[in-house]
Amino acid sequence: MAELVLVTGGSGYVAGWCIAELLNRGYDVRTTVRGPGKEESLTQAVSTVADPAGRLTFAVADLLADDGWDAAVKGVDRVLHVASPLGITAGDPAAMIAAARDGTLRVLRAATAAGVKRVVMTSAANTASPSSYATEGTTDETLWTDPDDPTLIPYRRSKTLAERAAWDFMSGHEGPTELTTVLPGAVFGPILSTGTIGSVGIIGRMISGSMPGVPRIGLEIVDVRDIADIHLRAMTAPAAAGERFLATGEFTWMREMAHFLRDGLGPHGHKVSTRQIPDFAVRLTARFRDPSLREITPSLGRRNRHSTDKASRMLGWHPRPAKQTVLNCAQSLIAHGAV
Prior knowledge:
Residues 127-149 are annotated as: Disordered. By secondary structure, the chain is α/β, with parallel strands linked by helices.
């Protein structure tokens, strides 16, 4: 019999691709949704790249509540805890942190009580980054972001505290369940539906011309399909138990992304602006006109990178080139009518 894998937060961008990859590799999948009514749309989205017939089931469970998690993990062999509270608690930093940390603990309590073999948790590369945004160089999984750094944006603090809580919980667990964490970079790539766009909306804005220029920000671009792949590798590799794995891609300035799109999309790329917005202009706009930009200002000009040598050595994982990911993402958005 095929193993049954639970994927939390099935309607999310990364989770959808994890579900598809699991189905394509012969697993049965159960996924959580926060409420009834999303099953049909999620099944349709996944069916564009995988066959879910008879092998995809659903459970209702919310990171913010205890109800539903014991039922969700019943009979499950492995868990991919991908769900993120980002969309649940937008605008409330304290609630975001609580949801990320407490939601993770709810999943782990249920999984360990059920004797699940392994939980793979989706963390973030920015939980393994220097606290100082001015730092350059390359870091690896041995580094932990300081959650008490007052300059941290709420999302980065929430991911750091949630992963810390997970490892602290597992350090006191003596049962058979193992924990592995995956730390992705900036995730782009094809979408499964317009309802699961996730972080790729920025590429849609670049294509539509609604971005008059690009800030001097660099991203370690990684393809969503490669993130799904590393989750499955981390789920099954014996040596992955108890390990953190950075899953970042090529460091790419946003201006380079703009050139990829402008030069690679033909007529669809003619609205893409390759103009570099000066740092001072971004800071002034963030201060006086658009407070939402304040979270990106510490990243202006930052060149810190993360090493994926561990994932390559232990899991045989290698991400595809950033240019391919950006163009595939844009082509998918266009094909789905999202721009």
